[in-house]
Write a sequence for this structure.
């Protein structure tokens, strides 16, 4: 479906806690009155009706509604779009920082209030009074820093907003076209827009005249083809793949379904093997645990043979060492066995490792 996509205004994510007077619609760089009570469509569809709405104070049958489309270049549109994104990113980032600073300030305020309650009690020590005075001074400094930071952000947002407004092309007072009331509900009056035709990049300007005053709103749009999107689905007894094509059930499963993957785990008192099947503990160990590897070792003065059993020193030497060669007197084999034992001591015993994961 072809449609004209709306692009968000420069301060679509305005700092509402600081700049409520700046949120909402933008304004061309001149002395005009803007109003949030003029609503413009998010998308303008070429093959269906599109409306602007008047709400709240402007919802009046006596209102005279005019509009016009102002064509702009792709270059200007992309410049405005980029600046819009930059401004919104800045606002979002600063909102987060300001929230964090505010929470820290409130935490200090609570601390000061608690210390004040203690220092105000009869018999409060000088140390308690000094603790309150110190905390209160720190809080006062922190509050001033917070206010300065907020004011600086507000000034930057305002500056960015003004710079953005200066890029918006103005309307032409000779090109206004009046709209007629199409529908009236309890919350708004709707006026059907004329088609923008084959314009690719443009600004929609709306002017509402009521009780001798003019109110304005605008919005940027670009004409672009929106690609069709599909999802795998089973609908009305038929299978459709991710390209929207009707397929067999087998083709659907091959294209759309991800094979189930499982891990060995012990969950909610039950054992599950590598295939996700519930099994006994013995079956779990057989499927999921690595075999025990035992080596001759000496740990904490205790001797263990190559079967992992604790034995006496004599039994250890018999099982784990090779007798000296009576002809050469070589004890290389014995030294080798001792080295193995030292390695084992450093790494301790090799124990069972269950590949256990939580879902």
């Amino acid at each position: 479906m072809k449609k004209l996509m709306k692009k968000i205004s420069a301060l679509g994510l305005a700092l509402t806690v600081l700049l409520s007077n700046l949120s909402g619609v933008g304004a061309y760089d001149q002395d005009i009155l803007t109003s949030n009570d003029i609503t413009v469509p998010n998308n303008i569809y070429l093959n269906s009706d599109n409306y602007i709405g008047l709400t709240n104070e402007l919802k009046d049958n006596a209102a005279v509604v005019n509009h016009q489309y102002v064509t702009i270049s792709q270059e200007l549109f992309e410049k405005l779009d980029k600046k819009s994104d930059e401004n919104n990113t800045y606002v979002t980032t600063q909102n987060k920082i300001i929230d964090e600073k505010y929470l820290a300030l409130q935490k200090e305020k609570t601390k000061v209030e608690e210390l004040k309650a203690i220092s105000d009690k009869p018999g409060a020590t000088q140390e308690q009074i000094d603790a309150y005075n110190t905390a209160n001074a720190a809080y006062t400094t922190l509050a001033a820093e917070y206010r300065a930071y907020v004011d600086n952000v507000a000034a930057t947002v305002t500056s960015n907003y003004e710079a953005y407004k200066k890029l918006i092309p103005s309307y032409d007072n000779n090109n206004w076209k009046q709209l007629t009331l199409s529908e009236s509900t309890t919350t708004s009056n709707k006026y059907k827009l004329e088609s923008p035709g084959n314009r690719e990049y443009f600004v929609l300007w709306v002017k509402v005249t009521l009780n001798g005053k003019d109110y304005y709103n605008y919005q940027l749009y670009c004409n672009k083809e929106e690609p069709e999107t599909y999802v795998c689905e089973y609908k009305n007894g038929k299978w459709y793949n991710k390209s929207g094509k009707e397929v067999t059930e087998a083709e659907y499963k091959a294209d759309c379904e991800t094979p189930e993957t499982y891990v060995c785990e012990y969950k909610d008192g039950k054992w599950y093997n590598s295939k996700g099947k519930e099994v006994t503990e013995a079956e779990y160990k057989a499927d999921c645990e690595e075999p025990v590897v035992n080596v001759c070792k000496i740990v904490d003065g205790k001797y263990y043979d190559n079967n992992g059993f604790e034995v006496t020193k004599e039994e250890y030497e018999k099982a784990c060492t090779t007798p000296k060669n009576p002809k050469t007197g070589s004890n290389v084999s014995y030294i080798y066995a001792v080295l193995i034992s030292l390695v084992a001591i450093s790494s301790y015993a090799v124990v069972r490792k269950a590949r256990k994961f939580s879902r």
Observations:
- Residues 63 and 210 are 5 Å apart (CA to CA).
- Confidence is low (pLDDT under 50) at residues 1-27, 324-359.
